[in-house]
Amino acid sequence: MKKKVLYPFLALVLVSIAAVSVNKFNPYLRTDIFRSFAKGNWYITSENDTLYTMGYHGVRKYLATSTTPPQLLDENDEFCVDRIMGRGGCIHGQYLYVTARSFLPGAVNNKGNNGELLIMKKSDLSIIKKIEYDIKLVEAKTFGNLLVVSGLKGFYIYDCGVPYNPKIVFTYKHAKYREYQGFDFIKKDEKLFVAFTLFGEGLEIWNVTDPRNSIAICHIPIDKKMTDGNNLPHAQSMDIVTNYPYLYATLGPLSETFNTKKDRRGILIYDISNMDSVKKNVVLIPEVDWYRKKTGDKQPTYITKYKKKLYVNFAEKGIAIFNIDDPAYPQYQGTEDISGEGAVIQPVFASNGRLYAGSYYWPTVYTYEIN
After folding, report:
1. Cis peptide before 69, with omega less than 30 degrees from 0?
2. Which of 111, 127, 239, 274 is the most buried if burial means most Cβ atoms within 10 Å?
3. CA distances from 125 to 6, 73, 120, 282, 334 (A)
C-alpha cells in the first residue's frame, strides 16, 4: 500500500479506535464532547413578554414573541464549568432563582459541585449569589415569600422575603435515596402543600403551611392499583401541575421498559379532594402515536396547562395534547409536531396563548399558537 494511502488509512483507524474507546469507557468525556456543541434546553419559564430558558447553554432571556426562535435578548453561561448546566428556575421580583447541577451520570458527582442555586438579576442575568449543594438540583418555585428547591435525594425550603438573600428554614434528605423531581403547590383550606413527583416512586405530598415544621402527609406509589383496579407496570413520573382538586403528572417508561410490553406513556390523574384517600387514574397515549427516538429520561417528562388543555413533551412527535373539559377525566387528543421538522422536544411551557418548547439537542426555542 502506498504511503499516501497508508497514512490516512492508519489515522482513520486510530481515530475510530479512540472514538469507540471514549464512547465505551469514558462516558464523562463523551458527554463533555457532545454537549460542547449540542447545548440543549432543560427548562422554560416566562413573565409577561420575557422568556427565560435554562440548559447546557446556561441561562438565556428572550422577547416572548410568535417567531421561532424568539428574539434573544441576553445570556449567561459563565457558571457552565466543571460539567454544570442550568436545570430549572423561577422568577421572584427582580430576580431569577436558577437551579444548576452536574450533568455527569449517576446521583453524585465526586468532582466539583453537585448542585448550585444561582440568584441572578433579571435585568442583565448577572449572578449576585451562589449557594452550593452536595446533591443535584432539579426545580425551584416560589409561593409568596416561600422558595422550594427540589433535588436528587431531598429538597430545601427558604424564606425569600429578602429576594437576593434567601434564608434556609427547612431541609429534608431521604434516609436512602429518593428523587424529588418536578413539583407544584396546592392551596387548600388556608393550608399550603407541595406535591413532588418522585421519578420511579410515584408522588409525595408535604404540608408546608408552617415551613419550619414541614411534614409528609401521603405517598402514592406509581405502580400500584389505579382507582379502577388496574395495575401499572413500574414507570417514572417527573413533572406535575395543579388543577385543584386534581393533579396531573407525566407518566413515562423506564429505560428497561422502553419499547417493551411494559412500556406505558401518558398522564396520571390524582384526585386530592380527600388527602387521606388520594385516588389515582391514568390516561394512556396509544402505541400507534409513540415516538421512537431514545432520550435520556424517557418522555413525557414535562407537563404544562393552558385553559382546558394539557400539553406534554413527546420527543420527535413534538407534543401530546389532552383535553380537560371534564377535569376528572382528561381525553387524549393526539400529537403535534410543533417544530415542523421532527425536532426532539424537551421542556414545554404555556403562557399568553402560546406554547414554548425547547429542543433536547439545541438551544432552539419553538413557538406554537394555542389560543
Report:
1. yes
2. 239
3. 53, 10, 5, 40, 38
Residue 299 half-sphere exposure toward CB, CA atoms < 13 A: 28
Question: Which residues lie across from 252 on neighbouring strands?
Answer: 236
The interaxial angle of helices 27-35 and 3-25, nearest 10 deg, is 110
Distances (CA, A) of 47 to 22, 207, 298, 366: 42, 28, 29, 17
Q: Residue written as cell 400500584?
A: 224
Task: Please list the residues that pair with 91 across neighbouring strands.
Answer: 96
Determine contact, residues 258/267, Cβ cutoff 8 Å: no
Provide the pairing of β-strand 191-197 with 183-188. Answer: antiparallel
In whole angstroms, give the CA distance from residue 11 to residue 210: 65
Q: Does residue 83 carry a pLDDT above 90?
A: no
99 grid coordinates: 437551579
Closest to 282 in 3D by CA, of 346, 205, 207, 203: 203
* Mean pLDDT on 202-225: 95
**CA 363 – CA 86 distance, rounded (Å):** 12
Measured CA distances, 308 to 107, 126, 370 (Å)? 37, 37, 11
| Count of other CB atoms within 10 angstroms of residue 198 | 22
Q: pLDDT of 297-349, one tens digit each?
A: 999 999 999 999 999 999 999 999 999 999 999 999 999 999 999 999 999 99
pTM of the model: 0.92
Separation in Å, CA 345 to CA 149, 159, 196, 339, 367: 24, 34, 23, 8, 12
Percentages of the chain per state (helix, strand, coil), in multiples of 5: 10, 45, 45
Q: Please provide residue 212's backbone torsions phi and psi, each rounded to the nearest 5 degrees.
A: -70, -20
Over residues 62-80, the pLDDT tens digits come to 999 888 889 999 999 999 9
Q: What percent of the chain has pLDDT over 90?
A: 80
Cα 301 from Cα 293, distance rounded (Å): 14
Q: Please report, as a single letter, which amino acid is at residue 180.
A: Y
